[in-house]
Structures are given as C-alpha cells and as structure tokens.
Amino acid sequence: MSPERQTGFTLVELMITIAVLAILLGLALPSFQGSLRSNRVATTSNEVLASMSLARTEAIRGIGRAGVCPSTSGTACVANTDWAAGWVVWHEIPAAGGPVFTVVKVIQPKQRTTVTGPADGVVFTAQGRAQAGATQVGVAPSDAADPARCIRVGVTGQSRIEQGACS
C-alpha cells in the first residue's frame, strides 16, 4: 500500500510568502504615495482652471462681471489668500439699486492640498478680461513642496497651468 500525499501549503511556506509580500509592499508604498500626492495636485489644479473658465464664460455671456473667490460658507466670498477652504464661482446681474451677486458653483474644501490665490479672488469683465490684470493661483500638497502647479490668469483672461510653484 502506498501512503497518500497531502497537497497544500505548510506553515513555513505561508510565512515566507507573507514576508516576501511585506517586503515588496514596503518598496512600492513610498512610490505610490508620491503618485497619490501628484494626482491630488493635478485634480485640484484642473478644478481651479475649470472654475476660472466657467467664471470667464459667465462674464462673456453679457450678464455682467463674474469671478472666482475664496469662500468658507459656499454662499459668499471672504477676503483670504487661503483658498483650501473652498471657493465659489459667481456672477453679477445688474439691477436697480445695485448689482445682485449670484453663486454659480461651489467648490468644496480640498484635503491635504494647499491652494493660495488673491485675497479678493479673480474677477472677469464682460469682455472676458481679468479686471485686476494678470494674477496667479498656486496649488501644492500640504505635506511637501513638490509637485506644485501654478494657474496663471493673463490680462486677456485666458488661464493656463504651469508645473512648479508660482513665482
């Protein structure tokens, strides 16, 4: 009679497999953290750029001025250079007794990302030009200096993203 062989893993084989897996994860995790950080910055930069484009479009539609400004409540602008608490896109409608400001879009706060821009925001005229001239908004991860992005708004109102911190 021949003895039956059992198939499967022994405890030693399982422990060696787990040890190898732990070593591989230890090597891959720091690289993955950098990818996550870069993705957060790119996503936030694109969101700022989209907000600028929406505000400029609202202004060009002929309703009146429009802009992007920092906001903590989502209903009104606050004079603050820290935009990480969120921002709003707004436009004004001319009315008797003064213009009426309407919030078009509210952008929620960004975690682990630093967003800095002009304290009074960016305002576009009905011609689509930046009212205060050329300006910039910087985006960077809150736990490191790199990767950083700079959204530059030219005098003509066109916006673009550049790699690196704003200077």
From TrEMBL:
> Among its keywords, does the record have Transport?
no
What InterPro entries would the database entry show?
N_methyl_site, Pilin-like, T2SS_GspH
The similarity annotation says: Belongs to the GSP H family.
Gene3D superfamilies for this protein: minor pseudopilin epsh domain
**Which parts pass through the membrane?**
12-32
Pfam families from the entry? GspH, N_methyl
Classification of source organism? Bacteria, Pseudomonadati, Pseudomonadota, Gammaproteobacteria, Lysobacterales
Subcellular location(s): the record lists: Cell inner membrane
Q: What is this protein called?
A: Type II secretion system protein H
How does the record classify its membrane topology?
A: Single-pass membrane protein
Q: Where is the General secretion pathway GspH domain?
A: 45-157
Keywords assigned: Cell inner membrane, Cell membrane, Membrane, Methylation, Transmembrane, Transmembrane helix
Checking NCBIfam families in the record gives: IV_pilin_GFxxxE
